[in-house]
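dumping this here so i dont lose it
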């Protein structure tokens, strides 16, 4: 559901908001690939223009204006003007955020808690504890079902060091009874094997992050599923 919403948001934005001549630019640049309009070329960052910096975090590979750079008027189009919780006037164009200081629009950090209807032109999906965050220009967005919009949020502790750009594997195991086990027996065996695997590894899939340190979560999760598979196979099941 999350991925679908982000994908649809990108389609709408590409059709209605992006004003780029020529072929539409891909959301991300693959390693070793070519890019246009400020993207990495051959895996290397092109030279920055004045007042810009290169954002390579999570392989995002985009250029943005430096914080503190100011303009008399912001670029037209994009999200346009919105009000922050601090009462400030903000403007987003692409992934750049501006704040009005009474005289000029200054490139600024996005205000936390602000809701926006769509994501920037380019964003990178970063996964943390099974939740997708959408990243662009040192700004993180998450989808809020209640508001039906994206919220600007602070990244969780540890995410910037350990966030993953690949979606997490499924928690589902496909278990086939090979000895004619009844439905009741299957349910009992699965519950007991899950409990045993959790006890053996310390990983609990029912809590955020498995209940282990973030730097151990991936390895512990893999250990948990290996233990569960071993338990089920020992009870006469084929597991895929």
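and the seq i came up w/
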């Amino acid at each position: 559901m999350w991925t679908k919403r982000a994908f649809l948001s990108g389609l709408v934005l590409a059709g209605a908001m992006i004003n780029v001549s020529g072929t539409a630019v891909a959301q991300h640049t693959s390693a070793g690939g070519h890019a246009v309009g400020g993207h990495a070329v051959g895996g290397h960052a092109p030279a920055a223009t004045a007042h810009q910096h290169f954002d390579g975090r999570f392989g995002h590979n985009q250029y943005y204006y430096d914080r503190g750079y100011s303009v008399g008027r912001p670029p037209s189009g994009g999200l346009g003007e919105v009000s922050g919780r601090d009462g400030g006037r903000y403007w987003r164009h692409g992934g750049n955020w501006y704040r009005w200081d009474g005289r000029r629009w200054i490139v600024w950090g996005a205000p936390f808690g602000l809701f926006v209807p769509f994501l920037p032109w380019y964003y990178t999906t970063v996964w943390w504890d099974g939740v997708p965050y959408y990243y662009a220009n040192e700004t993180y967005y998450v989808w809020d079902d209640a508001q039906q919009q994206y919220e600007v949020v602070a990244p969780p502790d540890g995410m910037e060091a350990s966030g993953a750009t690949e979606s997490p594997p499924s928690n589902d195991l496909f278990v086939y009874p090979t000895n004619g086990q009844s439905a009741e027996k299957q349910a009992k065996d699965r519950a007991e094997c899950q409990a045993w695997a959790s006890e053996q590894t310390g990983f609990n899939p029912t809590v955020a992050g498995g209940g282990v340190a973030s730097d151990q979560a991936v390895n512990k999760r893999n250990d948990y599923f290996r233990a569960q598979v071993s338990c089920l196979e020992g009870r006469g099941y084929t597991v895929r």
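The two ends are 24 Å apart (CA to CA).
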